[in-house]
Write a structure and sequence with these properties.
The complex is a heterotrimer. Chain A is mainly α. Chain A has one domain (about 5-325): ABC transporter involved in vitamin B12 uptake, BtuC (Orthogonal Bundle), CATH 1.10.3470. Chain A has 15 helices and two strands. Chain A starts with 5 loop residues before the first helix and ends in a 10-residue tail after the last helix. Chain B is built from twelve helices and two strands. In chain B, helix 9 runs parallel beside helix 11 (about 270-285) and helix 10 packs across helix 11. Chain C is of the alpha/beta class. Chain C folds into two domains: about 1-70 and about 160-215, P-loop containing nucleotide triphosphate hydrolases (Rossmann fold), CATH 3.40.50; about 80-155, no CATH class. Helices cover about 40% and strands about 25% of the residues of chain C. Chain C contains ten helices and ten strands. The chains are: A mainly alpha, B mainly alpha, C alpha/beta. Chains A and C meet through helix 8 and helix 9 of A and helix 2, helix 3 and helix 4 of C.
């Protein structure tokens, strides 16, 4: 029946990662990089993995989330630390919600390929609205470090950009996993699987496909917004449009989802781990060539292992005592 | 009156540039029409064409119009290779697979190009004079680009209508299964159409350089990918001719709005024009999704 | 009156696929729709289940107009169907496929309940042992049985079967017909079965037959009477031999 046991595996992986990060000198930064990529994959997976629709504008949602937090901390500093932070999270969620409702409301009326085409414009559109309209500082972005240090003191700022940002990202990452598990076990999840496999048949089976796609899209986008707010704005204390709308994050997220296994709970975790480690060592071995190596990797995964690592493992585990722990 | 003059001359440029936009989108529509595969890596192939024009001019002094022939040959070869290696296996796969594969191919080409040509902006200038018309001086190079686009589109049109193989391609667009039963080798048509689609796209990249004197860069394609999708969607996505006409419309919209946005104080019209492309894309999808779905 | 079609028309471009067809189906009735390929049967199903909106005419279900109701809402009212070419949710297991029917059909079951119902219906159609298999790996016959289980799990009031029996051997046909009859009696489901050939099976199943020809209703009435009608014989020619 409903099976939440894979969450044990998920939480165990996080516990081990955090223990390594805290216990071994110099490991915290690489571990946080891994967790960032897991989170990015997990949030995208809720839409791409479960519906089979591609959101090429994914990074824009991290971007608007980052701006939401930056606007709150930079422009409403006087509210005080806690209210400004709260406002930051609210704005991040709200902006992601609005963008995903508008984009989804228009584009999700269309089938896969047309939806993908519509999303290609989203990232560019928002980036150039900010640059062209000179909104929120335009191309000079929002730089928070000076503002935060002046308003709340250097000590608080350091706490915000280290402990708080990292903890926030870990919470978002784990939350994304729990939401994924919940969806997989719910009517929503069954409906999404059906529409991914055959949208017309799903309609005739009584599934309100547009509503289901929209729900998955909005959830995925809001989680992306929260990742942007924590991993970028809080951690880096600045937001530049050229950085937060960089399309390579969309590519990375797609690679992670496909590599690990689309539509699975543990796929983005495995994909994120493999990817982040690969990237870490590739950057050292072949600086500036990650995308050159990643792109063929993605093609190979699509052609040869379309189910990804976890999709494959879940099948292999079927009928064994590990079955319950892999999904 | 200065503004009206500026608007009119910008619209003239828009129409000229629109012809190249149209040509640059025909390959995208051809591939979608025949294979039902969306080439989301479209812009990368335009970039390849741009570099072909650049290097031929810089190294050998060969004018872009001659490079067109090399570009379509190189493009078709690249297209055929991609078809054989990747696309062939994805024709009947879920949409997700072909979308992601084309996306990855586009990125691979850009990154590969970066390794050999670097990430800097380059350009060349081919000066052969100009002619004065409608309040502005139009360089001959741009008029040549305009004329070439129309001639090439016409050649493709005739090829489609008059040759046996062109008719076979059309038959596949209209009814894949029907064409198979008529004895058409669908696989060969796929290979040819994909190859020709990429060939046309690379070729259009040569003409694009006549409008961006210093804008040649390995990442220049992203902009054209977005534009091509707006145009393709305007033109009905699966129709190369629709795409060609829509190119003109888009050129006019783009240049007209650039001029008008320039009137708003405190904004940067170039950025806002690119924002507007996305809005147009969304609006077309909102207003005419039935047309896009091809009568579904 | 369960289902009522009033002069329903559906065109595709210049082609009239369904031409002003009127039809009434009572609760619990067993009706056969017979017609050669291209006679508009599948389009008629698509119009009833909401895949297409008709270009003309009106459709009522239990007295309520559903002409422009989306497919998924019609399903909730109690319409279920199988497809001529089975359409399983390929990567989901057989059990999950059937459970999806129970969740989103009129049964409107929760996840746990739906999975239990799936087991029950799979047992009923005789493919319980395949329940953990990926649906795309089934044979065509197994897929048809799974679709039947999926449609029944939706707890429909009206069940539309599209060439369900085609390609089955006589034992399977008898087994499935018995099964449909049994479920139908228990749950008072009206069933419309659509067939191209297999006149023999239709005589065993249907109380009433509608013959479609070139998008229009050619004739309708009690099964044996209709199948021996000169007009039908004319359309089918040699087919009559099979009724024998």
């Amino acid at each position: 029946m409903r099976n939440y046991t894979p969450l044990v595996t998920l939480l165990l992986i996080y516990a081990v990662m955090i223990a390594i990060g805290q216990g071994i000198q110099g490991m915290w930064q690489p571990i946080m990089l891994v967790i960032f990529y897991i989170a990015v994959g997990q949030a995208l997976n809720i839409f791409l993995g479960m519906t089979g629709y591609v959101n090429f504008g994914y990074v824009a949602l991290l971007g608007v989330g980052a701006y939401g937090m930056a606007v709150a901390l930079g422009y409403y500093t006087d509210l005080g630390l806690i209210p400004a932070l709260t406002l930051g999270f609210i704005l991040a969620i709200l902006l992601a919600f609005i963008v995903s409702m508008v984009v989804g409301g228009i584009a999700l009326r269309l089938r896969g390929a047309y939806f993908a085409i519509a999303t290609i414009g989203v990232n560019e559109g928002i980036k150039y609205l900010i640059l062209g309209g000179k909104i929120w500082g335009g191309s000079s972005g929002i730089v928070l470090s000076g503002i935060l240090r002046k308003a709340y003191g250097a000590e608080t700022m350091r706490f915000l950009s280290t402990v708080f940002a990292d903890a926030g990202l870990i919470v978002v990452a784990i939350l994304s996993g729990i939401i994924t598990m919940y969806i997989l076990n719910s009517r929503l999840g069954y409906g999404l699987i059906a529409l991914r496999e055959d949208e017309d048949a799903a309609k005739v089976m009584g599934i309100n496909v547009r509503r289901y796609k929209q729900i998955a899209f909005v959830i995925s986008c809001i989680l992306a917004g929260l990742i942007g707010a924590t991993a970028w704005t809080l951690k880096l204390t600045y937001v530049f449009p050229q950085d937060v709308f960089a399309i390579n994050y969309t590519v990375e997220a797609i690679v992670i989802v496909m590599l690990g296994g689309a539509g699975t709970l543990l796929g983005p975790v495995v994909g994120g781990l493999i990817y982040a480690l690969l990237k870490y060592y590739l950057t050292i071995a072949f600086p500036g060539m990650q995308l050159l190596i990643l792109a063929p990797l993605l093609i190979i995964v699509i052609l040869l292992f379309p189910e990804g690592v976890v999709g494959y493992l879940a099948k292999a585990a079927r009928g064994t005592r590990f079955e319950k722990f892999v999904r | 009156m200065a503004f009206v003059e500026q608007l009119i001359s910008n619209l003239l440029y828009g129409a000229i540039l629109g012809s190249v936009y149209g040509l640059a989108t025909m390959g995208l529509s051809l591939i979608f029409g025949v294979l039902r595969i969306v080439n989301v890596g479209h812009g990368a192939f335009i970039m390849v064409g741009a570099f072909i024009a650049y290097w031929m001019f810089i190294l050998y002094g060969i004018p872009p119009l001659i490079s067109l022939f090399l570009a379509i040959a190189v493009g078709m070869a690249i297209g055929l290779a991609i078809y054989m290696l990747v696309v062939k296996r994805l024709v009947d796969a879920p949409e997700l697979a072909s979308l992601l594969a084309m996306f990855a191919i586009g990125i691979f080409i850009e990154e590969f190009a970066k390794q050999i040509w670097g990430a800097d902006y380059v350009g060349y200038s081919w000066e052969i004079g100009g002619v004065s018309m409608l309040f502005t001086e139009v360089p001959f190079t741009k008029l040549l680009a305009f004329a070439s686009s129309i001639v090439i589109a016409a050649v493709v049109y005739v090829w489609f209508r008059k040759t046996k193989i062109g008719k076979a391609v059309r038959a596949v667009v209209e009814d894949r299964e029907g064409a198979t039963t008529c004895g058409i080798d669908v696989n060969r048509i796929y290979a040819l159409s994909f190859s020709l689609g990429i060939g046309l796209t690379v070729l259009s990249g040569v003409l694009v350089t006549l409008f961006t004197p210093v804008g040649i860069n390995v990442y220049m394609g992203g902009e054209y990918t977005l534009k091509a999708f707006v145009i393709a969607v305007l033109g009905g996505l699966a129709s190369p001719w629709g795409a060609f006409y829509a190119g003109f419309i888009f050129g006019l919209i783009e240049n007209g709005s650039y001029t008008l946005l320039g009137l708003i104080p405190g904004v940067e019209p170039f950025g806002l024009t690119r924002f507007l492309s996305s809005v147009v894309l969304m609006l077309v999808l909102l207003v005419k999704p039935t047309g896009l779905l091809g009568g579904e | 009156m369960l289902l009522k079609l009033e002069e329903v028309t559906k065109r595709f471009g210049g082609l009239v696929a369904v031409n002003s067809v009127s039809l009434e189906i009572d609760e619990g009735e067993k009706v056969g729709i017979v017609g050669p390929n291209g006679s508009g049967k599948t389009t008629l199903y698509n119009v009833i289940s909401g895949v297409y909106a008709p270009d003309g005419g009106r459709i009522f279900f239990e007295g309520k107009e559903i002409t422009n109701l989306p497919a998924h809402e019609r399903t909730k009212l109690g319409i279920a169907r199988t497809f001529q070419v089975p359409r399983p949710f390929g990567s989901a297991t057989v059990r999950e496929n059937v459970a999806i029917g129970a969740m989103f059909g009129r049964a409107n079951a929760g996840v746990d309940e739906a999975l239990e119902m799936a087991d029950r219906y799979l047992e009923m159609v005789g493919i319980y042992e395949l329940r953990e298999k990926e649906a795309k790996l089934l044979t065509p016959l197994e897929k048809k049985l799974m679709e039947l289980a999926r449609a029944l799990a939706m707890k429909p009031k009206l069940l539309l079967l599209d060439e369900l029996l085609a390609g089955m051997n006589p034992q399977d046909i008898n087994r499935i017909l018995d099964l449909i009859n049994k479920v139908k009696e228990e749950e008072n489901i009206a069933t419309i079965a659509m067939v191209e050939h297999l006149m023999h099976a239709i005589t065993k199943f249907a109380e009433r037959v509608v013959v479609m020809h070139q998008g229009s209703k050619l004739i309708e009435g009690p099964t044996m009477e209709v199948l021996n009608h000169p007009k039908v014989v004319e359309v089918y020619l040699g087919e009559k031999l099979k009724i024998g």
